[in-house]
Every structure is written in C-alpha cells, then in structure tokens.
Design goal:
The chain has about 140 residues and is an all-alpha fold. It has seven helices and no strands. α5 packs across α6 (about 100-110). The two termini are about 40 Å apart. About 10% of the residues are buried.
Length: about 140
C-alpha cells in the first residue's frame, strides 16, 4: 500500500468511527482567525513569539515532512485530540506506516515528563502498584 492510500485508509476509519465529515471550506479555527484580525500590536508580538517557538519545536528533528507531521500529530494527540478526529495511536501508526509501539514511544519520549497516558488508561502510580503486587507471581512461568 502506498503512502497516500495508507493516510486515506487511516483517516477514513477515524472519520467513520467518530461520525466526522470532511472539511472543505470552514473549520472550527475560523472563529479564532477572525479574532486574531482584531488583536493589538502587543498581542500580535506575543502570538508571533509563540508561533516561532512552536515552529522551532515542530522542526526540531529536521524538515523532513514525515518527521514534522509525526511531531504535529503527537502534539495534537497530547493536547487536543479533537483536532485529529480523536485518533488513537493505532490510527496514527497506520497513517505514518509504523507500529503502534513506535507511535507510543514517540508520545512517551516527547511528553514523558507530563501525563502522556490516554484518557481512561492506568496511571503510572497504578502501574507501579500493580508491578509491585505481581512480584513473586509465578503463575505464567511455565507458559500456562
């Protein structure tokens, strides 16, 4: 399967699962853009600085489109999943032609200092507690 087909397949699954329609003329960000047109010079300077820093972060691994888009989607996944149609890591991995583990590793690497777990999954505290309680458990030692 070629790159474009992989992307279309992943995005179709996400839009079907979440009941989303394709955007053709307007987006939810249009109202924000309208608001930006009325900003003061000071607000404009602040926004410019923030955008410069964001771009430096997004292009940190170079300007290869694959690297850039992986970071953009990781940012959206971490901070506002609605922007990417509530994609899960499996969807993202399929779209970028990688494993789910690779997508998970990227999220953990980029945002490991923050809560990088998906909503509804176990917290790191719970994972540590479960690991401690399983110490000495040999119920699967023989493969049964």
């Amino acid at each position: 399967m070629n790159h474009t087909d992989r992307i279309h397949q992943a995005l179709k699954a996400v839009s079907d699962r979440n009941g989303l329609e394709v955007v053709d003329h307007t987006t939810p960000l249009d109202s924000l853009i309208d608001k930006e047109e009325k900003e003061t010079p000071k607000e404009y300077a602040i926004r410019q600085e923030a955008m410069q820093r964001l771009l430096m972060y997004i292009f940190k691994d170079g300007y290869h489109p694959g690297n850039v888009m992986r970071r953009v989607y990781a940012l959206a996944w971490q901070f506002n999943r609605e922007l990417i149609g509530n994609m899960n890591l499996t969807d993202m991995a399929q779209m970028f032609g990688e494993t789910r583990a690779a997508a998970s590793w990227r999220i953990e690497t980029l945002f490991g200092g923050f809560d990088s777990r998906a909503p509804g999954t176990k917290t790191n505290t719970h994972r540590r507690r479960a690991a401690k309680s399983a110490e000495g458990n040999e119920n699967r030692k023989k493969g049964t």
